[in-house]
Amino acid sequence: MKALSFSVMVGISLCASLCCPEEDDYLDQTLFVQNDTIISVENNQTTYDVGDTIVIETVIENDQLTIDNLNITLSDFTYAEIGESRAFHQLALYKETAFESVVQIPLNESSIEVNSGDVRLNNQLIEVISLYDGNTFRSKFSIRLLESGTFYLAGPRLLFNNSGGETTINVGVYEKGFVDITSKIINSDEDGKFVFTVN
């Protein structure tokens, strides 16, 4: 009888471990979205004067379509608290040099003005935080343009191995899963750079 009981217990344990998914398996899921209609430069303006500001706005609709054609709601991946749920992405400012190369331009706090959401500077990266307002995740900020030349706004990997100017917007929390949205600025060129000139 003990041998039968032991065999049944081992059989049930084996079946449970093979047939039933781990309770936390869904937590490490990441869904992927491609959406190039999220980040924009105000009025698509491409010509400025020294001292002007370029305004960058991020508007992420709550409903998105994954690359696998799955309709998702971003707030389902957050705590959905207005003003507390966030989406994160990074941008960088680049400049063409006189030697026909491109360099990343460091910014300081005095050259950034935040209208909504939040912006943090991390070395040469602009970390953009869009806050959930009940319908969308939004941020809006401006950069004061302090010198003349040809500039690019793009994602942080533009100068690395021809990876393009796209950025990845991250939404989600560990308990609910994650969404990575690949995006570039509206009216960017084929490399994902938003090109503008400062006179």
Number of helices: 1
Please name the CATH architecture.
Answer: Sandwich
For the record, the count of structural domains works out to 1
Query: What value does the Rg take, in angstroms?
Result: 23 Å
Helical content, roughly?
under 10%
Please write the CATH class name. Mainly Beta
Structural class: mainly beta
Q: Say what the CATH topology is.
A: Immunoglobulin-like
What does this entry look like structurally?
This is DUF4382 domain-containing protein. There is one protein chain. The protein is globular and about 50 Å long. It is mostly beta strands and 199 residues long. The chain has a single domain (30-198), classed as Immunoglobulin-like, CATH 2.60.40. Strands 1, 2, 3, 4, 7, 8, 9, 10, 11, 12, 13, 14, 15 and 16 form a 14-stranded mixed sheet that branches. The N and C termini lie far apart (91 Å). It has one helix at 2-19, and strands spanning 30-34, 39-41, 47-48, 53-61, 63-65, 71-73, 86-96, 102-104, 112-116, 118-122, 125-132, 136-144, 149-154, 167-173, 177-183, 194-198. Mean pLDDT is 87; it is low at 4-18 and 20-27. The chain contains one helix and 16 strands. Helices cover 9% and strands 46% of the residues. The longest helix has 18 residues, at 2-19.
